[in-house]
Each structure stands twice: as structure tokens, then as C-alpha cells.
Design brief:
Length: 148
């Protein structure tokens, strides 16, 4: 019977000792972290952001959100999302390009996607509009190609 109590006592002492060591390490770590001060703090006065380029001169529909603007080997690509239908966006860009004197070189609408290529004085803009049913929005990609 005494062996059982001694064995239980030894286990409890070991557990309490291990817990005390872990608690002591936690306290030392917390105090060290709280009291830490960097040795040399240098104020950076000339921090500047990345220079943003002027985005497309083609207007985006109201409420649209620009996703990316990329320079390509031949021009520029702008991607954005809008909460309008493919037909509404296709008509929106048709009206804009017609008003600016661009002609339609290619146009196809099929299964929730519209691709229209506009041409004007050696420049081309391809408008790709596709519905994203799981996201409840429409993605628009404007690819501008300029001949040099």
C-alpha cells in the first residue's frame, strides 16, 4: 500500500515540477518580449510606393472593380469585374467604341461569353466578357494592341 502512495506521490511531484518549469519559461518569455526595445530605430523619411500608371483611357462601367492592369509585349491588358450581364456590358462597350469611330472586326457571343475585336487606325482592342455564375459577377478583359 505504501508503494502505491509513493508511486502516486512521485508522479504528482514530477507533474508539478514539469508544470512549474513550463510556467517559469512562459513568464520569462513574456517578460523578455514585453520589455524588448530595438537598439537602433532609424526613421525612413523617403519611403515611396510603386508608381502607378495611368489606367486605360476606356471607361469602366460604374460599380466595376479593377482586378489587374498588365503591360504585354504589344500593349496593355486590363481585367475587372462588374455586376452587370454579358449583354449589358457588350452593349456598353459597343456604344463607347461606336462613338469613338472604332469598327467591329470580330464579334461572337456564345454560352455566357462575348468576344468582340475593335479596330481603329492600326490599333486593336479585344473585349472579352464572361459570366461567372458561382461568383455572381462578370469578368471583363480589355486587351489593347497598338502597332508601332
Amino acid at each position: 500500500m505504501i508503494k502505491v502512495f509513493k508511486h502516486t506521490y512521485d508522479k504528482n511531484v514530477l507533474f508539478i515540477t514539469a508544470s512549474a518549469v513550463v510556467l517559469a519559461l512562459f513568464i520569462v518569455s513574456f517578460v523578455t518580449f514585453t520589455l524588448y526595445r530595438p537598439k537602433a530605430v532609424v526613421k525612413l523619411s523617403n519611403v515611396q510606393g510603386y508608381k502607378s500608371e495611368d489606367t486605360f483611357s476606356i471607361p469602366h462601367p460604374s460599380g466595376s472593380k479593377e482586378i489587374s492592369v498588365d503591360n504585354t509585349a504589344y500593349g496593355r491588358r486590363v481585367t475587372f469585374e462588374a455586376s452587370r450581364t454579358v449583354t449589358e456590358l457588350n452593349n456598353y462597350y459597343k456604344n463607347i467604341f461606336d462613338a469613338k469611330g472604332w469598327e467591329v472586326e470580330y464579334n461572337e457571343v456564345a454560352s455566357g461569353t462575348a468576344i468582340t475585336k475593335y479596330k481603329n487606325k492600326g490599333s486593336f482592342i479585344t473585349v472579352t466578357i464572361s459570366r461567372q455564375p458561382d461568383l455572381n459577377n462578370t469578368i471583363v478583359v480589355l486587351d489593347e494592341v497598338t502597332e508601332e
